[in-house]
Amino acid sequence: MAATLLARPLGRRTARRAGPSWQRGHGRIALVFLAPALIGFAVFYLVPTVRGLWFSFTDYNLLSDPAVVGLDNYGEVLSDQVFWNALKVTGVYVVFNVATQTVLALGLAVLMERLTRSVMIKAMVLLPWLVPNVTIALLWMWLLDTNVGFVNHVLEQIGLAKQGFLFSPDQSILTIASINTWRHVGYTALLLFAGMQLIPRHLYEAARIDGAGEWRTFQRITLPLLRPVLALVLVVSLIGSFQIFDTVAVTTEGSPVNASRVIYYYIYEKAFTQFEFGYASAMSVFLILLLVALTLLQMRLLRASTSDLA
Amino acid sequence: MKTSRRTLFATMLTLSTLAVAACGGGGSETPAADGKVTLTYALWDDRQQPAYQQCADAFQAKNPGISIKITQSGWDQYWTDLTAKLVAGDAPDVFTDHLSRYPELAANNQVLDIQPYVDKDKLDLSIYQKGLADLWVRDGKRYGLPKDWDTIAVVYNTEQVAKAGIDPAEFATWTWNPTDGGDFEKAVAKLTVDGKGRNGLDPDFDKNDVKTYGLALETGGGAYGQGQWSHFAASDGFVFTDKNPFGSRYNYDDPKLAETIDWYAGLIKKGYMPPYDQAGKLGVTPMMEAGKAAMVTTGSWTISSWGKDFAFAPLPVGPQGRKTMINGLADSIYAGTQHKDEAWKWVSFLGSAECQDLIAQNAVVFPAITTSADKAMAAHKAAGRDVSAFVEEANDPQGTFLYPITDNAAKVEQLVLAAYESVMLGKATASTALPAVNTEVNNLFQ
Questions:
Q1: Per the CB 3.0–4.6 Å rule, which of A18, A116, B60, B337 could disulfide with B93?
Q2: Strand, helix or coil at B17?
Q3: pLDDT by residue (tens digit) across B70-124?
Q4: Do B8 and A32 touch (CB under 8 A)?
């Protein structure tokens, strides 16, 4: 994505200038320096995208040659209940994950800002983020297991009922979202904490002189001035959160019924376990459209978020 | 200056193209230094790898010109990995194949037809367990040579069975039916114990506070229920498909299946089996070992994972007799291999008594050759395990039915699993959910 954003304005500028750029001498050398990026972009983004688009119009099982079927795959996607359910499940995941993660991270960042100077503690909140996703998924799967898991053992000890967590139809996707909230909250908190360092100290001093309490200071100074950073963090976690795959693949594999079958996992299943590559490609094209919409939203938000500090 | 720039540009372009080409090329054969052929052989069960290494050593001693390289990866990765390598044209020369997977591979011309070799070598296929060899034939072409088989039996915790006052000798003739579960359900109920020590038959039994479940529940197993429910349904008269192998119509709408699944899900409601959402993905072994479940039906491939506290019993006898699913693995040759003749030599050695006797001694699976399977049973006995339940079931001519082999297996699995799970979770009844999914399943074959 970054490559497109960079390439576009550059192309426009060269076109607007008078005379062919080749004759001014910088064009060619510029091209030389651009070549690695351009080739990388073509090989790793452009070609796969175009190929995927082509596959989406075919019936292709990876092993035989693709057969063109026109728009059949798209028609099927539109009437596929599991696809729409997967989008819904992914939506629930994203909303729950981003909401809990951001709120908790904000709280954590304020605590780090107001209560501690310890580098040790700041490093510690980052710890879950340093552990590989698959390890975390396995770790929580054992911890949350109903029969031999530690969490249910504790619940029983304090007199509460055992919970299905990952394998309960109502709790499954929320549990997965919580696991990833736990993993990312430290990292997000650190980003927000860094943002807080940009807020001038004298504003806090002024607030204190005026007799503002902790909550009012947070509401009237920290939050508004943190807005640009908060917007960035929100948008980045939104996009990242949308890509949920590994936790599902390791723990529930979409079960029970379709309660945790998120969109990326469904596409993966179709392509690599059921060999419906054409169909999987069609779903991916839908997803591209969705992500383009999200990206436009991202750009709009970032442009709107000029700092209030000026 | 101009030329040098142009040269620089051209060079960079060429270099990057080369780099890209190098990435794509890949997969070249290892060069045969002294005319020696290296065959790769893929399998998924790590417990079997040492045994097959012994086979490979014996084979290499007899065929100095061929060396065997064994690769192993877990069941899930195995198929993803194999698919990727088939697409890249770089698959292992010989690989372990599963009945549910080979139709798709064969339909896409990825598996070598070994019938000509079998004819040429006049191979005797009657040495294998009855019916196993023919499973690998479709339209006159043969896609694999049998290596082992598996059946289902009951594994139980000996101490808990004794404590419940059950004589294991009764298991030899116990019955089951979908209405009240027969002797089998009675045993399950007796083995279920609540927090106050009352068993499942006690009128005061508290199903919300179960300490030990009579029957453990393995999640998954929607479409075929191999270890979970296939034997119950079959002993009630249920047949999966219109014909096997290569049926084109599933019978998931059969009321006999619905009553079996409803009975099975009913064990959860009675508190004899853990709720589906609490069964977990760790498998039944941790639960059984922690003493939280006393009994479970399981496949013979798990035999070596059960410790001294456990013993095996035959499946209960249903209205139509005692039935177990029998499934077999085979070795297949990749159609694109460079060394077809050498690969056949290795496959026929894997399917010979010499190799299968070696496998038998390791007592992990039952080899496909009947005489070798007897040796495996003896090896189990020497290790202190009585596994006759599995073998006697396999040897009963009326007692086995085959793993259903059809096209679209992966899609069938996904569809039926969702329907099955909704029944097990108590969100639907089998008599409504299964006929509905059967229509969807059969639409795949239109």
A1: B337
A2: helix
A3: 999 988 789 888 988 988 888 999 999 998 888 888 888 899 999 999 999 999 9
A4: yes
Helix runs in B26-108, H state only: 49-62, 75-87, 102-107
Residues of B in contact with A255 (CB under 8 A): 219-220, 417, 421
Q: How far is CA A147 from CA A153, B134, B196, B277, B424, in A?
A: 8, 42, 18, 11, 18
CA atoms within a 13 Å half-sphere pointing along the CA-CB vector of A176: 36
Decide if pLDDT at A305 tops 70: no
How near does any CA of chain B get to the CA of A167, in Å?
A: 5
pLDDT tens digits along B117-143: 999 999 999 999 888 898 899 989 999
Is A49 found in the same domain as A107?
no
Please indicate, yes or no, whether residues A19 and A131 belong to a single structural domain of this protein: no
Q: What's the CA gap between B142 and B139, in Å, rounded?
A: 8
Write out the residue range of the structural domain in which residue B241 sits: 152-326+391-443
Contact present, B37 and B339 (Cβ < 8 Å): yes
Q: Is residue B7 part of a domain?
A: no
A164 and A28 within one domain: no
Total of domains in chain A: 2
Residue type, A4: T
Using the predicted structure, report yes or no on whether residue A86 has a pLDDT greater than 90. yes
Residue B371 forms part of a structural domain: yes
ipTM: 0.76
Say what the pLDDT of residue A23 is: 57
Q: How far is CA B276 from the centre of its chain?
A: 22
Distance from C-alpha of B274 to C-alpha of B376, rounded to nearest angstrom = 34
State the pLDDT at residue B34. 60
The verdict on B182 and B308 lying in the same domain is yes
CB contact under 8 A, A146 and B274: yes
> Same domain for B408 and B266?
yes
* Residue of A64, A247, A248, A273 to mutate when probing chain B, most B C-beta within 10 A: A273
B358 domain-assigned: yes
- Convert the pLDDT of each residue in A251-274 to its tens digit: 888 878 888 999 999 999 888 888
Residues of A in contact with B220 (CB under 8 A): 255
With beta carbons less than 8 A apart as the criterion, state whether A101 and A93 touch: no
Taking only the tens place, the pLDDT of each residue in B264-320 is 999 999 999 999 888 877 778 888 998 999 999 999 988 888 888 999 999 999 999
Please give the pLDDT value at position B348.
93
Domain membership flag for residue B174 = yes
pLDDT at site A7: 42
Query: Are A166 and A18 found together in one domain?
Result: no
A288: CATH? 1.10.3720.10
> Considering its fold, how many domains does chain B have in total?
2
Residue of chain A minimizing CA distance to B217: A147
In this complex, do B13 and A35 lie within 8 Å of one another by their Cβ atoms?
yes
- Maximum CA extent, chain A: 82
